Every structure is written in structure tokens, then in C-alpha cells.
Amino acid sequence: xxxxxxxxxxxxxxxxxxxxxxxxxxxxxxxxxxxxxxxxxxxxxxxxxxxxxxxxxxxxxxxxxxxxxxxxxxxxxxxxxxxxxxxxxxxxxxxxxxxxxxxxxxxxxxxxxxxxxxxxxxxxxxxxxxxxxxxxxxxxxxxxxxxxxxxxxxxxxxxxxxxxxxxxxxxxxxxxxxxxxxxxxxxxxxxxxxxxxxxxxxxxxxxxxxxxxxxxxxxxxxxxxxxxxxxxxxxxxxxxxxxxxxxxxxxxxxxxxxxxxxxxxxxxxxxxxxxxxxxxxxxxxxxxxxxxxxxxxxxxxxxxxxxxxxxxxxxxxxxxxxxx
Amino acid sequence: xxxxxxxxxxxxxxxxxxxxxxxxxxxxxxxxxxxxxxxxxxxxxxxxxxxxxxxxxxxxxxxxxxxxxxxxxxxxxxxxxxxxxxxxxxxxxxxxxxxxxxxxxxxxxxxxxxxxxxxxxxxxxxxxxxxxxxxxxxxxxxxxxxxxxxxxxxxxxxxxxxxxxxxxxxxxxxxxxxxxxxxxxxxxxxxxxxxxxxxxxxxxxxxxxxxxxxxxxxxxxxxxxxxxxxxxxxxxxxxxxxxxxxxxxxxxxxxxxxxxxxxxxxxxxxxxxxxxxxxxxxxxxxxxxxxxxxxxxxxxxxxxxxxxxxxxxxxxxxxxxxxx
Amino acid sequence: xxxxxxxxxxxxxxxxxxxxxxxxxxxxxxxxxxxxxxxxxxxxxxxxxxxxxxxxxxxxxxxxxxxxxxxxxxxxxxxxxxxxxxxxxxxxxxxxxxxxxxxxxxxxxxxxxxxxxxxxxxxxxxxxxxxxxxxxxxxxxxxxxxxxxxxxxxxxxxxxxxxxxxxxxxxxxxxxxxxxxxxxxxxxxxxxxxxxxxxxxxxxxxxxxxxxxxxxxxxxxxxxxxxxxxxxxxxxxxxxxxxxxxxxxxxxxxxxxxxxxxxxxxxxxxxxxxxxxxxxxxxxxxxxxxxxxxxxxxxxxxxxxxxxxxxxxxxxxxxxxxxx
Amino acid sequence: xxxxxxxxxxxxxxxxxxxxxxxxxxxxxxxxxxxxxxxxxxxxxxxxxxxxxxxxxxxxxxxxxxxxxxxxxxxxxxxxxxxxxxxxxxxxxxxxxxxxxxxxxxxxxxxxxxxxxxxxxxxxxxxxxxxxxxxxxxxxxxxxxxxxxxxxxxxxxxxxxxxxxxxxxxxxxxxxxxxxxxxxxxxxxxxxxxxxxxxxxxxxxxxxxxxxxxxxxxxxxxxxxxxxxxxxxxxxxxxxxxxxxxxxxxxxxxxxxxxxxxxxxxxxxxxxxxxxxxxxxxxxxxxxxxxxxxxxxxxxxxxxxxxxxxxxxxxxxxxxxxxx
Lengths: 324, 324, 324, 324
Prior knowledge:
By secondary structure, chain A is α/β, with parallel strands linked by helices. The first copy, chain A, has helices at 15-25, 73-84, 159-169, 219-231, 283-289; strands spanning 2-12, 29-34, 37-41, 51-55, 60-68, 88-91, 102-106, 112-116, 148-156, 173-179, 185-191, 199-203, 208-215, 238-244, 251-256, 262-267, 279-281.
């Protein structure tokens, strides 16, 4: 079964600028840098990395990966995608650093997804055998810092068309839905982990990337993040917030990275069991306090998305449904 | 499968005093009060209650309940306890308010446990059909307030003897272990939910109740809780903290309620997948910074426990193992 | 000598609505209510009141009062205003509740100002003689709550024309100035207390009232205030913020009260001795990060001001300069 | 007149260790280091330094300095100390870095005090002429960091004997007094600035040094400071707190530096005018919640003081009273 969002791979145009922003300014932990790719994590993560930034000359999303609870789940998921006629392929262990065998698929709504079980873990012990929590190094740290990957926000052609795949096939649970005047959902927050979402889906006419979100420890950390950007004379990168969301109830802020990717810093959403019906917002409700519980409209730039970079994700020779 | 801790039922000697403390001072939400019992929840909970306080003339614990993901899990768990020769009984829906059919057992380490699937949910919509998050009523609230039930801390005869039941039978995962000089665990943090623990188990020579813990929204809420107690001239009820734990990494505070039960207010532990080995503390490590990352020893009173009130939990006629 | 801003008297159209907003929602302490007037204070104030709201059928400002260190300062100030040819009059003790004899003047920039020494103090002891800090009643309180009056923001015909009165005559010190392209100040932050300002002066073409500001204890209190407004479905009253100011370095939020008066909630400005030259902002600096260190422009409504209600402040028969 | 505490000069046994602690760990700003002396400030200070640590092979206090509002105040204070028969001497500008002419005295209770008007200020503008608040460099900073010097805590032979000098001669105002069973004050909080104190005086039988206190921005900064010490495995240096004081109402924490000096980190005391009578605590009140509003007794080590290093402060040839 799918446990949670495990990592996101984003595109950028300048890895030095990405390093300066994510590591030097915000305090992401650098796990590894190799030519063309930067592997990062938040300070409370036990996986060695959760964000990879690769040089593609432009912003955007390559893929989102989810951890499954058992290696055999990859077989089940492969058979399922075969049945659904969706492109899929297996990649051997090591295709990404510290990662075991994985299954790569393209979702019906056009997104590159990966499923994996084995993820390299940080060494939680010092050289002298003493337990070291990753988050307990503030004396050598700086920045906010972000604690862990929370969710990815994807744009899809039509959310109502996407939900059967996410809910019925992948067994995600919708925590919240925004319904239009015809009661059709156009934004859905879906999750396998118990918090409000691992993935947000928004109707956009086409598949695109909206943002990746990292948790921070508490609201005061988010205010320090805004100050950090202001102090570094990067206030123009602060797109929206800090403020309280209506949907998810989180306290959050959106920032643009040097490449133009949108990073959300996020804290304080709720936890709710999976088998309860989604909380549904009606147009009058979300118009007023849905995006911002404090009533501030999103800036026009918030509608902008970044492209997908999925070329070669699943080999062209992978048979489509019925041809396997 | 077991999802999470769902509720705790505690004993008290004075329900009016309990109401004054939990509801009027700390801001727990009162779901229901009936003769001899008070049903409460935190402000971010969707279940209608998570803490029941019953009049027994003394502090202590009656039982801890866990939610299972499917009603059929009750059958599986009943068969499992039958196989283990452990006392167990089914109770019909409604035995506790808003609750479906449940299975009651006594664990090998002497604790009354309950498993249940169906739990009444709060109405998340207003009379006018508008979505209302439970936590978004600060304008009519007061107190800290606590957000949701986090964990229960149980004392057992010997943790090493308890772990096979919790880990192998109930499939909890140990997030952390404190090992003695012989590498035997004497405190274990175990969980079904992804955070650090649903249950803490500590070696005590006999089964007893140490504390129940509720989450608060962030560290500033916990400081307000300490001020609240000081302002109400109840500083003597503040037993330990606020401070950072070593184990679990949470920021926490222990308070004694009017009956003498210990309530922990808690925020900020980590999330970690279940299938990784527990983080193990050695004596030199926890002696220094295990209980308090800031180095403050627990007060002597912290070793005190409260008794169990389990009479009649499972009828005496329930057959023990081999007699079913 | 002038010590600090002591109180502000504002106009409103509905004292019940003002009570519901300031007392019931935000947590201001009600000192006294009498027909047509409501007397309030923050929870850390030792003066019995610092904000008076009077029924005038509309929002606006009646006067701002400053405390002087010695009763004899009133004579000095009266002589000074006589010399300057400015309207001034003495009012007997008790003209405002708990207040000693006062001097009322009209400033050259058209504002009603009051100077007073004697201000009734709260009783800091309980009936049993135990010391009670006013701020240590959180167990019976609610709301943010605001701690104390910080400053008043006045609009004047031309700041450059106002400064000789405020700086040379009243011996305020300018902490910061915003200079236009001709190096002429158009906003000035001036103070007698050591923090960034007791009074803000902004060029507006005519005398008007912009806002009154109260301190809150820390940034987390300000976030709770925003949530409080959102939860009460009053998000539309949240005009700007929460955010970091460039000028003053404070973390702040502007709210409109039911009458339309603008209330700033404010925390974290700096302290600086009076005899140092003002910190001067150039147009390029404040355009970018002056109002908002995080780069968010003020909403258009922020330029709106409220009128002055000064009729009868100083009797028409008070002789102007040279006629005394 | 005396404006405020301006700087404190402390002794240490190892300036490298002091640098590692104050600058590298806690985030004090290093203004200057010269052989045998380290000059530091908090991040919101406009004076170039407020803490000097000098190598004396042991912890302790050299002197405390106060800023006066006018250079001529030095003459007044010199005449006053001459009249009182107290040792005093003038030192030329530059005796301490960036400092104008000063007056050095020994108080009747045995403390080396300095009065000075001219203090070098930081350059608040960048090379490009843009205004730069000192606190707005979080992107290049680390540590808590402390914001500014708040107070110094001195032990004196008998507080009741000290008060006439501090209150009547130096015109400090007592904000709070702890009275013994005979109504004699044994701790006094006295100030020239409007907050709760610039100087704390405690009866000790002899003159000694208890602690120096720096402000932090808010309670969350103080919690980060405690984490910082824990993470650096310096929890043993955290002597008491974080917690709410009864006296002063501040949220505070006491830390021992590598030399053994006691540093208080402090935030949130109140502001009150000088001419009101002190708030008086009776034994039953401060026994319960005076030191700690949350009821935690001070550890035994908190009674320890550090010595004075005043040799040569005022030349031996300075005439005592009656010999001038």
C-alpha cells in the first residue's frame, strides 16, 4: 500500500542559484550534489533526500515519488497500471541515489509518478554510537529550516476525471473538495498519510506543476522565513502569505525559487482518518475564506504554473493497455 | 488494522473539579456530560470525544481504545486474543456514546484495551450548510486549547515481556527504546500512527497508569498553558516542564489534574515510517539528555503512577486461553 | 517634560458594536462604560484606561493625550502655547475619568492634544493584599489580548511644517523620516518614550486620523488575532498584514473596527536614544521594503483617513497669540 | 540625567571559549576583539558594544556603565559623589572603545559604576547609502540572537542600605520590592529606563555579581536558545528556566557561560512610569510564585555569585569624603 509522498524531482536553470537559495538561505540539508543534480532534505527527515533539483534550463516538475509499505506492492501496482492501460516501467535499484527498485508510471491525468519501497535512511547515530536526532543540530544550522516534505500540488485537465484514479485505484482519500456551482470538484486534497494531503489536484485544462510544500516546525518559523527573505532583499520572491489557509487550516507562505518554482512553507494542518467523507466547500464559502482564512485574495501570479519535464520517464516502447 | 489511539477513559474523584480544570480552564471541548461521566475532546478532533472522565473516587485509568480500519478487524483481533488465551469480550454498539460494536481485551501486561471501528463524528457543517472546521472557533473559545489526543503512557511489569504482544501481535512499531546496561528495553515508544508514539510502555513491576497526552498547536500554546496555570494560582499542578524531551523530540509539559491524574501537553515530535528499526538510547545518553534535552531531571513525583480501574472490563466468565 | 502617549479618544457610531469588537472579541479590558462613552485599556497597563470611544455617529479622532512628568509642566506648556499663539485651555481634574488637571491645546498642524500628569492607577493588589500584575489573569481572559497603547498616527497638512512644533517645541525626537525626492520628510516617526514612536505624522494636505496602535505580547499573539477575526467571520476587517514593517521594524497588522476606525496591532519595534539623528529612508528604499519588509504593497484602502471631531476642544474665546 | 544601562564589563578565564559561546553559539555580534578583551553587542543595539569580556583568569564583574543624557551630567554626578564622600575619578575619551569622557565611581554598596554620555553608534547605512537596521541581517546570522542589553543584577551587603543611593541620589525608581517579615526590602528592581529594571539589587552580605541579562525578541527565541544549548550538548550550562518570572513578569532563562558568569536571556517585562510606588511582594507571595510564576524553585546553584574585579577602578589617591 502507498504510505506517503516520498520525494519530488524539480527542474531548474541554475543549480548554483538553487543551492544558494535552498541550502545557504533556507537551511535545507544538502545530502549530495552531483553534476546536474542537487539532493536535499528537511532537518527532521530520516530519508536521505526528499527534494532533487536537476538542471533542465527551466523550472518545472519531473516526477513525484511515493513510498509503498512492501516491495511486493510494486508488482501489484504494475499489474494495476497494466490493467488500466497506463504507461509503466520498472527501474532497477540505484536509478536514484539510495533507492531500491522502483515502478514508474504516467497517471491518466498526465503526471509522472514513481513508487518505491526501499529508501536509504540517515545514520541516526554518531561515530561514538550516540543517538542523534537529525533535527537536533540547531547549533550548527541556519535558515528556517524546513522540517520535512509535506505535499505536491499538481494541475490536471479536470479534477473530476482524475479522482477515480487517485481515489479508487491508488486508494488515496480525499480530505477536502472544492465544488463548483454544478457540485463538480475542481480542487481536491488527497492523501495516504493521515494529514490533510500528500497531493493537491486542481483543474487547469492541462497537466502542470503548481508547487511543492515543506513543513516548518511552527508558525514562528514561518515568520522567520519571511524575515529571512526580506533581510536577504528577496522580498519579491515572497508571492503570498504568511497567512492561514481556509482549506487544510494550515498556516502557510508561498515563495518562488530562483528558477521560478513555487515552494510552499507550511505548518499546522489537521489529521483525520481516511474513511470519512471529504469536507466539501461550496463556492460562496471558498470565495470568501477558502484560500485565505484572513480574507486576502491570491495574487494574480498564483495562477501561473510550471511545465512538466517527463520526456523519457517511461520508455516509448512500453506497451499501452491491451498490448502488454 | 489498528489505526491509532482513539480514546482514554480516566477515573476521578470529583467531576465538577474535572470540568473546571479540563473545560473551564484548559479549554477542552465538552461533548457530553451525564451522571458520573464527562466526555471531552480537543478542538481539532473529528471524533466527538477522546477523553472520558468517570467518577470512581480516585484517579487512575479505566481503559485505552484504539480505532481499527475495518469492522472485520474486530473478528480478527478476537480470534487472535482467543489464540493468545487473553480475556476478551464483545460489547454492543452504544456501550460508549456514539461508538459502534467494540472488542474489549486485557493485554498480557495487564491493561484494559478496546478496539472499535465506528466512532461518531462531529458535524462539520453549520446549520446553513457551510463547512466549519472544529478548530476555527477561537472567537468563542478559551484556554490553551488542546488540539487532539496524542498518546497514553502505561506502566507494565517488564517492557521486554510486553513488546512481543504490542509489536508482533498488535503490529505496533517501536520508534524508540531505552536500553539498560544489559541491552534490555525498559521504556518503549510504540505506535500505529506515523508519529513517535500512541503508547509509551515503561517497566514498573506492575501495570499502572502514568499519563495521557494531548497535542497543542505549537510551543507558544504550551507556554500559554503554563501561564494559565500560574495565573489561576495552580502552579503547584505544573509537575515538570515546559521543556524539550530527548526521547520523541517533543516540547512538553506535565500537569496534575484535580484528581491527581497526570496530563501531558505535547507538541512537535517527528514522523517516521514503521518499518525502520527503533532508535535506541544507551544509559549514558538518556541519563544526560533523554528525559529533558535541556538537562533538567524529572522531579521525584514523576515516578508516581496511578492505579488501574478495570473491574468488570471483561466478564469473569470469559474463558481464559485453552478454555474457550 | 512629556513622558509618553497616555490615551486616545476616538469616535464611533455604535458603542455596543465597539464593545463587542474591542472587549468581547479582542479582549480589551473594560474600565468603565457610561452613556455615550466606553473606557478601555490593554492588559499590561497600569493606567485605568488608555482608549476612550465616544458616540459621535461616525469614526474619527477626538484627541490624543500625553502624560507629563510633573504637574508644573502644564504651566510651562501653557506658557509655551501662549507664546506660539496656539489655542489652549486648562480643564479641571475629573474632566475625564480618573484624571487630574489637564491642558488642552490645538497643534499648529490642527490636532487636539492634551497634556496631563495625574492618571488614576489600577489597584495592583487583591482584596487579600497580594500583588496582582494586571497581565496575570489569562485564566479569566480571552481575545488576543492587547497589552498597551503604543502610538497614534496623525495626518497633517505637511510634515515638514509640523516638525518644528513636535521636535523643537514639544522636544519629541524623530526616530525615522521618509524623505521625498527633494529630501523633504513626508512621514515622521516621533517619540518621547524610547521606542520607535508615540506619534506618526504623515503628509496628507489636511489634518486627519489614520490609526491608533496597541502592542501585543509577541508575534504569536498577532497571528492569533488574525485567526480570531477569521474565525468570527470578520476577515473583511483585516485590512493589511500580519507582516513586518520596514519602518520601525515592527511586526504588525491593521484592522478596521465596526465604526471604520483603523486599529494597528503591533509588536517588536526597537529602542533607541533620543539624541541620535533620525534614520532616513530614501524613495528607492521605502518603495521597495518601507511599508512592508516582506514586499507586500498596502491596499488602496490604507490611504483612507478618518476625520477629526474637535469641536469645542478649546473654547472659541481662547485668545490666539498676541491677544492673550 | 541617567538614561539607561549602557554596558557591562565582565571577567573570564578564556576569551576563546567566551567567543565560541557568545559569538559562535548564541549569536552576539562581535564589534571588536583586542588582546585581552572582547567587545560584543546584541543585534538590535545602536551602540557599537554593550558587553565587554576581559581576561582576568576567573569570572566576575568589572563595572557597569550608564548613559547620561548630557555631557554636563558628568560634572553634576562628580560633585554629587564628592559630596557623598564616594571615590570618583574622570577618565578621558577613549578609555574604552568609542566612548567619550566618563566618570567612574564606587557606589556605597561597593560596586564600580561608570557614567558616560558619548557612545559610538553603528553605521546604519550601507556603502550604497541605504538604511540598514542592525536587526535585519538574519540571512547572514545565526544563534538566538540576543537583541539588546537589559539589566545587571548586583548583590549588595543590605538592600535597605543601598536604596537611598540608588533612589534618592541617582534618581532610579524602584519598580518592585521583595519585603521580608519586617517589611525590609531584600531585593529591589530599580530603573531609569521605563521597563522593570536596569539594575537588580539583592541582599547578600557583601557586594558581588549575580548576572547580566540580554533581551531576546520573543518567547520562541528563548525556546530556540534552550534547544541550541541542548543541541550543542551544553545542557549543563542551562541553570534555570525557561520560565515565567513572578517579579518583572518576564519570560526568562539563566545560562552559565564557559567562565561561570551567569547570563540571563529575557523577554516580556512590563513598562511603568517612574513616579508610582513600587509593587511590593510579601514573603508568602514570593515564596510561592515570586521567582517562578510556574512554581519551580531556583536550583541551589542560583544562590552562587561571582566576585568583583575592581582593583584600580578609582585610583587609590582619589580622596575619600571630607578629604577632597
